[in-house]
Write a structure and sequence with these properties.
Length: 548
């Protein structure tokens, strides 16, 4: 089948034609071939139209990652409706906001959240239909309802952004936006029918939606879903699927690396010596990394891995280098929900650890109003740029100007066109002398320490002087501290830990100009609250000050 595909509801048609009996989706004992996937999607499409829904009506989907989630999404858009993906972990107030603001006529929901939606029905006056994902197979529409004249450039998906800034806006993406993004990625990253993926990032997130769900079906790959997000279930699924392509947030890769090094640290001395020797050889002779660390990759469930993609948040240089040493071919990507979402990807043949790569085909990236260091706001344009924010013309006009999307990210490009992200415009700290401080720059220096698990640098007004101070909130790597105590045969007091981090801050400050120096720090007892893609909700701490 060589017919050009323009609509999301047809995204699997080429694969159905070429590989009808090949596995498309699997979770536990539930499997769908491409032929079966199409049959279920068409059946759901017909059921939705039989209900009397009209082209352009909104219909939501909410639940855990599963084949049924995929069928729900595809059935909705194939019917000419607008899909509204909902984060299953959202608070009740946010679910009510999304379903009300989107004017959704109904929702397809997994069994785990049926009761929640039922409890909220009194607040959801616009919701007329609630369909169980488990019940999709039992649907029996009376006939096939043809859908014609769906505009590829019309609204297909309405995605409410996550709350790193505290403001939730509904991003409007068309069939054309997402299909163009996939076709650009297709020319940059080779995924085919021989590949298998393990779906870990929540499917309501645009990165997973495009890169981990729609794109693999477009290319004829197989997608496996873990029973849960417990490490044991993820590992079991990666081994079962013989995963060749892994798309995940940086936190997962960080946990992989941490697990390897913890295992080595608790191993006999001979194993430690061997690991260090292999690491030394691998760092000097790159082509030996793959055979030297083959066993490690197998134990991580990555023995067949061909390509790994990190996105949704920043991958630290420390983790990127560790993955390279273990011969895990890691790609960094960059993008936003507003860009469907991919803007840039680091080339496998020539990656730069600190960069988020080069623009994908058909996408332009520029730096607006660069300062003396070449740093300014990253702006982008291309066919993947959103239609705008739903019913929010003011917010749309603030970011879409003359065809360019102003991302709110600060960064620069080098002479080869590689893009580097240095911070967020909204998180910028402006000192009393008018100097700009990017907190992410200081965070990157602190996170390099093996003793730091998470860190956030924020402004704080000194109550006496009324001057803005630069403060670091540090969540220690308590496992590493405990391991250190056991190795040294000592017990570390709170004062000892405080002094350790005081020294760390002092060392970091030595390499910073005076206006960037950290003047206060606080040690946290628990992890920072995060979005579903594990980005820290910075706004919570800027709004409330240091002690949260």
């Amino acid at each position: 089948m060589n017919k050009e595909i323009h609509l999301l509801g047809d995204v699997f048609e080429r694969s159905v034609s070429n590989f009808p009996d090949k596995l498309a989706l699997k979770k536990g004992d539930t499997t769908y071939t491409y032929r079966q996937l199409k049959a279920e999607v068409v059946k759901l499409k017909n059921h939705l139209l039989e209900l009397g829904l009209k082209k352009g009506d909104k219909f939501a989907v909410m639940g855990e990652n599963s084949p049924e989630w995929a069928i729900s999404y595809l059935g909705i858009v194939r019917a000419g409706l607008v899909c509204v993906p909902v984060d299953r972990l959202s608070q009740d107030a946010e679910i009510i906001h999304i379903l009300t603001q989107s004017e959704a006529k109904g929702i397809i929901v997994s069994e785990s959240y049926l009761e929640k939606i039922d409890d909220l029905k009194g607040e959801l006056k616009n919701i007329k239909w609630v369909i169980s994902m488990a019940g999709i197979k039992k649907l029996s529409p009376k006939k096939d309802y043809p859908v014609t004249d769906i505009d590829p450039k019309g609204l297909a998906v309405l995605i409410f952004t996550s709350g790193t800034t505290g403001t939730s806006k509904a991003v409007m993406l068309s069939h054309y936006n997402i299909m163009c993004n996939m076709k650009s990625v297709e020319r940059f990253i080779e995924i085919n029918e021989k590949d298998s993926l393990c779906s870990i990032i929540p499917m309501h997130h645009t990165f997973e939606g495009t890169a981990g769900f729609l794109f693999p079906l477009f290319r004829g790959a197989s997608i496996y879903y873990p029973a849960s997000l417990k490490p044991t279930d993820i590992l079991a699924t990666m081994k079962e699927s013989k995963v060749t392509c892994l798309i995940a947030v940086p936190l997962l890769f960080e946990k992989f690396v941490g697990a390897v090094y913890r295992k080595v640290a608790s191993a006999p001395l001979s194993t430690k010596v061997m690991f260090n020797a292999i690491s030394g050889i691998g760092s000097v002779i790159p082509f030996l990394r793959k055979p030297l660390f083959a066993r490690v990759r197998r134990e991580m469930g990555l023995g067949h891995l061909r390509i790994a993609c990190a996105g949704g948040a920043a991958l630290t240089e420390k983790v990127a280098k560790a993955l390279q040493l273990l011969a895990i071919p890691i790609l960094q990507g960059y993008g936003l929900t507003e860009t469907s979402p991919v803007l840039s990807v680091s080339p496998l043949e020539k990656p730069k650890v600190k960069s988020v790569g080069v623009p994908i085909p058909d996408v332009e990236i520029k730096v607006a109003d660069p300062d003396e260091n070449g740093i300014g706001e990253i702006i982008a344009r291309g066919p993947n740029i959103m239609l705008g924010y739903y019913k929010n013309e003011k917010a749309t006009n603030e970011v879409l100007k003359d065809g360019w999307l102003y991302t709110g990210d600060l960064g620069y490009t080098d002479e080869e066109g590689y893009v580097y992200i240095t911070g967020r415009k909204k998180s910028l700290i402006v000192t009393q002398t008018g100097k700009n401080v990017q907190p992410e720059e200081i965070e990157a220096k602190l996170i390099k320490s093996e003793w730091v698990k998470e860190v956030l640098v924020i402004p704080r007004i000194d109550q006496e002087t009324k001057k803005e101070q630069i403060c670091a909130l540090i969540f220690p790597d308590y496992e590493r501290l405990e391991q250190h105590s056991q190795e040294k045969g000592i017990t570390m007091s709170e004062t000892d830990i405080e002094n350790m981090y005081k020294e760390l801050v002092r060392e970091v400050n030595e390499d910073l100009p005076i206006y960037k120096k950290v003047t206060e720090f606080e040690i946290r007892d628990e992890e920072f609250p995060k979005t579903t893609t594990q980005k820290i909700k910075r706004h919570l701490f800027i709004e409330r000050g240091v002690r949260v």
